[in-house]
Amino acid sequence: MAHYRRWTIVIFKDDIDGDWSGNARPGTYVRLAKYIQANRESDTGMLIGPDFLPTREEAFAAMKSDIDKAIGPQHAAQDEKND
Questions:
Q1: Are 47 and 67 within 8 A, CB to CB?
Q2: Distances (CA, A) of 40 to 29, 32, 46, 65
Q3: Residues 32, 20: Cα–Cα separation, whole Å
Q4: pLDDT higher than 90, residue 50
Q5: How far apart (Å, rounded) are the C-alpha atoms in residues 12 and 4?
Q6: 5, 20, 2: which is closest to 68 by C-alpha?
Q7: Spatial contact of 24 and 46, defined as CB atoms under 8 Å apart
Q8: pLDDT digits (tens, 9 = 90+) for 5-44
Q9: For the whole prediction, is pTM greater than 0.85?
């Protein structure tokens, strides 16, 4: 579980083939149970990882890229200034 530009990212590994993927949703969640509860209540704004990748680093980079696309360049630039 990680936070990026006011989003929470969860990366997970498929135990069968060892590939990695993730999902993300707007908001800062610090407990996985709350994140899962929020997903059950609404999938609005949730991003699903594009594919399964060979490493967790690639999955994390893919989710950050998807967030950047979702929030748009103007918001991303503003977040850069605030970080």
A1: yes
A2: 14, 12, 11, 24
A3: 18
A4: no
A5: 16
A6: 5
A7: yes
A8: 999 999 999 999 999 999 999 999 999 999 999 999 987 8
A9: no
